[in-house]
User: Fold Diaminopimelate decarboxylase from Halorubrum saccharovorum DSM 1137.
Amino acid sequence: DGPENPPARRVSDWSAERLAGLADEHDTPLYVQDLDRVGENCERLRDAFPDADVRYAVKAHTGRAVLETVREAGLDAECASAGEVDRALAAGFGGDRLHYTAVNPPARDLDYVVGVAEAEPDLTVTVGAVDTLDRLAERGYDGRVCVRVNPGVGAGHHEKVRTGGAAKFGIPSDRAAEATRDAAERFDVVGIHAHAGSGIDSDQLDSHRELVARMGELARELAEPEDADGSPIDLEYVDVGGGFGVPYEEDAPALDLPAVAAATREAVAPLPAGVDLAIEPGRYVVADAGVLLTRVNTVKPTPDERVVGVDAGMTDLLRPAMYDAYHPIRNLGGGRESDGSDAPAPVDRSATPVTVAGPICETGDTLCTDRSLADPARGDLLAVGIAGAYGYEMANQYNSRPRPAEVALDDGTVAVVRRRETLGDLTTVERDANRTDRTEA
Ligand code: LLP
Assistant:
């Protein structure tokens, strides 16, 4: 018997009292990230995939405390940019645990990573275009390379995050074997890679299986070329990407990770001797470890809907505006009744359909529409769940809104790990060039 599939954490599982205390102390909007849960999620992945290399896709949450937790849990780091490599190094990942996935990499990023590789020669660069291989060679790089393949099949929660099959990512599969053999003449080719997309749920397992099967086939073809002239490539691993979904809707079933692992192993088999399976989940590690706390400041009944105005918007959590993503929202109460009485509002007010909207001047700036919530009153605290992945990471300063603060919970302690930005932070990169530093154009 394999490991059981432990349930995902729901927004209702968080202690309302604890969250209310954090909001009172640190103000809102506030991200709360539970490092204990991050550690548990790493364990769940390692239990389900005991014989695979598990790499955390850093882009899902790049906070230092999260990276350190993931490193201590034994996962490697998969980085999408020089900035992410820099953060992973600072969090203590050595080159042997660093994987840099170069997607149309800016020259500056390649220069930086090639520099890092001089000191950390065990670092691996994953490359999805022959141009990128050429650009690495031009910089004198001859180290570890993994070849990213476009598997021709994708999956994910939204078309904008379905990478497999998108021409932007990877070398087309019909040219992958040849490109890998060519690469092996210039670099130490150690792996092949494909990523289907992000937010794969149980309904999309067929696509996942298809991708994994194609990667297994490619690994066998590289190990034992049909063409008598082709020399075999000794791979260390086949990386089948990340994308493992988490349930956002409160009643959605959790992805059956042990079943996904079994299907993955079966689809990739038989791997050539000495070749390991690798995965690189991001969302699964951090999503249900985070909530975003936001305070109701406006309640507006209109003929069509009830609009609940809050202090967090698309600048704090972009996913609903960008992907129509669903995030569970729980009203923790604490506000005053809208009749102006001083009595704290009870949270069992009858559920009402509402639109929760932020402070940004765009119609799309909503956290939910037509959602049934325990009728919010001014001053109520709302907890937006499953906000730990691609939450703070996609936050921005549009409308000159400073980014929110983040606290990390760790074994009964709490620490501010990202301070709230100030109005002063908004202009730190700005220069008064119009007046003082003008040069002839
Ligand atoms: N590996 C590669 C090469 C990737 O591009 C990604 C995600 C991952 C791994 C990790 O995927 P995950 O396990 O987190 O699904 N901002 C979007 C998600 C974009 C994901 C991009 N690539 C969202 O909020 O849904």
Summary: The pocket of LLP is lined by residues 57, 60, 78, 101, 161, 163, 195, 198-199, 241-244, 280-284, 319, 323, 390 (CB under 6 Å). The chain has a mean pLDDT of 93.
